[in-house]
Each structure stands twice: as structure tokens, then as C-alpha cells.
């Protein structure tokens, strides 16, 4: 997906965003900031390792306050009995406010997460679309009339009742977009929420809470508790007042949360990791495919759950394709996301950079051919930068092919015969199944692969996030779906009603 160019943020915009960040004060509970004494967590700008601010290290006590506020809001007749059109209106107002504050939020996202400003603009724009899409649901969550067969006179119908208090736990890689998608789906369904942003990039989620209040939602509908996953996150998962957990993050954390929910049977949606396959047939439009496949792994420095990280290219075009990818990668500017022309920002943290470099060393040691990148040595004194990296001659058993690296590292493999079953078997050979991509001009190849690929999203000849289409994973990429009708229904319980009468 090529992004429209956006000029770098000027000094005034950067100053406004920094002033906004400085004004956040603790947790956002019941419509107001609540300062917390005691421990705090430094939020680092990954572009230069400077401290942006400190956030409160919340735990069980703060989670308790936030869940109580969300419960009161859930039971408040103002919210519980709000006409669907009014709920729609509030969500549309929120979308407008996010749109009006787009540039400032995008700067906050770039400072906090490191992503290039143009990408942050696109992500915040996407968040506006997600909120608008979900704003359409309150008026459409209507259940169905059911034809009844039991003897007598009966009217049978279903309703989709709001689940209650939803805990939304989000990762750092696309924090604002993921947060807005979850928050707007939960509110559209009539839930109230406690959001736990990622400790590595919490700031845009904190800003959203203020905008929710400004939009006119009753206090307590959206609360934010900041802190570590092991403290604030675990306390939310364990809290008896939480009815639903909607989690996006790593597969390892998703499994831990699933285990923790067994006794309470809290409802659970899990959006987890990925190691998505890209298949390029020899008839593909290479002019489009080469830059799209490159940015499909290098966008956001590879820190994208749906990144196409395992590439299968037909032998007839393999060398040309790899040469094209290498030339494209070598032209990408790696640097501070607030600077003009930056295509790849830093990774989120020192730990993430070390992890990615470890995988690059493993790829070399396991015998893959390093075709581009391969080191963290970019011209900057500080910041967590890694160059876009391409390995050719990768093999299915290599760790760079099996594991989710979550960095700008592409592994390329060759295929020779166009047997759809064999090809799909290779593409499906992963514990993950989030997305899959195919490039071909042949309709038969497109349909044959779409049918055989075992992934939650299959995209042919391009990519992009459509909020009306469900998104989620097969296998260990998760449980449940976000977006589309399923994304809102995930915040509801289906109730069946039968009403009898005698004539
Ligand atoms: P992570 O699992 O480390 O953390 C995600 C969130 O969970 C954070 O807010 C963290 O504080 C919290 N957390 C950590 N331990 C917890 C616990 N025990 N209980 C409750 N909460 C806890 O993931 P990450 O490193 O922030 O994100 C990267 C991962 O997210 C990658 O694997 C990526 O593929 C995945 N991801 C998936 C999707 C998707 O839609 N499928 C989207 C984006 C990211």
C-alpha cells in the first residue's frame, strides 16, 4: 500500500503534541484524570531514546476503580437505555473529533511508537474510518424473527445484548488504530470499557479517552488504566467485574490470558501473532507487486501482525523479483519518523532491536543468503534502527521462516511447479494463520489459492484494511474476529426470547 506523502510535522505541531502529552495525568477513570502516587514507567521515544513522559504504573487498586466506574456507566440508564440513533451520533461525533485532531494524534503516535509521520497519518485516518463504520451498528443490531415449530402460539426472536464491562488490552505496534477499532465496536454494542494500553506506546490511547469525553459519552463509558501487562493487564484479566476480554498482542500472552479466564469463563477475543505467506506467480504484475511486497514487510519496520514475512516466488521470475526487492529496500530511508522522507522508523525498543538482530544472525548461521540489510548500523547516534533485510534461499525449517520476528526481515523461497495443493501446503506450514497474499493475473490461480490458503484474510494483488471485512486468525493467530459484523457481535451475547399467547 503506497502512502500519500505528508510533509514532516513543523515545530508548532511538535510543541502542541508534546504539551498534550505533558498534560496527561495518571489514569482516566470516570471521566477525569486520576493521579497516582508511587511508581511510574518512563515512556521512551524510540527514535532518539529520550524520555517523552512518565505514566502511572497501575495495578489491582486502579483496575478496581476503573472497573467499578465502567460498571456504573454500564448500568446508568442514560447509557443502558440510550436510543440507538443517539449512540450512533456520539460515535460519529467521536470520529469527527479524531479527524479534527488527526495531525496532533499522528505526531503523538510517531513520537511514542516511532512510525513515520505519513504512516501515523494513515493509521489515524484509518481509525476515523473504523469508528464511522462501527457507528452504523447500534441501529442494525436487531437480531432476527424465528419461525417457531413448538405447539401453540409463539413469537420467537433473538436479541444481541451488550456483554457488559469489556477490558481492552492492546499492543504497541499500531496502538491508536487498534484501540479505536476495539473501543468503537464495544461502545456500538452498548458495552463500557477499561482500556489497558501497551506500556511501550500508551499515549494516543490516553488522548482518545479525552476525546470520548469531549464527544459527550457519559462518564465511565471509557476508562484507561496504564501500567505493565504483568500488573495492570493481569489485574484486569483476573477482575470478577470484567465480562469480556478483547486482547491484541503476542500469542504467548494470549495463551496466558486464555488460561487465566478458564474459571471465570469471561468471554474472550484474541488477535495474536502472524507469519504470513506471500505467493507470487510468474504472471504477476511485477511493477505493482515488487513495491507492494516490499512494503508489506517493511511498513512500520515489520512490526505489523499481518506482515507478509514468508515470500514464495516462482523460479521463472525469482531472480528478477529478488533483485527488484533489494533495489527497493536499499532506497528506503531509515530514520526518525518526524523527519521528511523517512520510510522506516525505529523499532519500538532496545529489546525488540536485539531480538530482530538475533534472528538476522540466526538466518546467516542457518545458511540463508543475506541479500539486503542485515545490521542495525544506521547513521544515528541513538534510536533502535534496523535496516530492511532480505534473506534469499530460505528453508522452511529455519527460525527466520518459522518464528514471528516482528521486524523488517523478509525470507524468500522459490517454487517451481504451479500445483496449487503443494503450494498452499507450503504457505500454510506455520502455527500462525493471520493473513496470506497472492499476486497473479490469472483468475483461476487467484480463486484456487484463496480457497486453499488457511488464513483469516486472503488478499490478491494488493492489501489494505477494510473495516467492513472481518479480521482475525486461523490456528495460533487467534480466536474470534474484529471488524465487520463479527467485530461488534463479539461484544454481545445472543439472547433468544419466546413469547406465547392463547387466542
Ligand atoms: P504483548 O503480548 O507483549 O502485549 C500486548 C498487551 O498485553 C500489552 O498491553 C501488555 O502490557 C499486555 N500484557 C502483557 N502481559 C499480560 C498479561 N499477563 N495479562 C494481561 N495483559 C498483558 O504483545 P506486544 O509485544 O505488545 O505486541 C506484539 C504482538 O502483537 C505481535 O505478536 C503481533 O503479531 C501481535 N499483534 C496482533 C494483531 C492482530 O490483529 N492479530 C495486531 C497487532 C499486533
Would you give an account of this structure?
With 503 residues, this protein is of the alpha/beta class. It folds into two domains: 13-272 and 477-495, Aldehyde Dehydrogenase, Chain A, domain 1 (3-Layer(aba) Sandwich), CATH 3.40.605; 276-466, Aldehyde Dehydrogenase, Chain A, domain 2, CATH 3.40.309.10. The protein has 17 helices and 22 strands. The chain has helices spanning 11-23, 60-75, 77-80, 84-100, 102-113, 117-135, 175-189, 203-215, 229-238, 251-260, 286-298, 315-331, 350-365, 399-402, 420-427, 443-452, 484-489; strands spanning 27-29, 32-34, 40-45, 50-56, 145-146, 153-162, 165-169, 192-196, 222-224, 244-248, 267-271, 276-280, 308-314, 369-372, 389-392, 409-415, 432-433, 435-439, 457-460, 474-475, 478-479, 492-501. It has a seven-stranded mixed beta sheet with strand order 14-15-16-13-12-18-19, with helices on both faces. α14 (399-402) links the parallel β15 and β16. α2 (60-75) packs across α9 (229-238), α4 packs across α8 (203-215) and α15 packs across α16. It is globular. The mean pLDDT is 97. It binds nicotinamide-adenine-dinucleotide. The site of nicotinamide-adenine-dinucleotide has 32 residues, from α9 and α10. Nicotinamide-adenine-dinucleotide binds at residues 169-174, 178, 196, 198-199, 229-230, 233-234, 237, 248-250, 253, 256-257, 271-274, 305, 404, 406, 434, 473, 477-478.
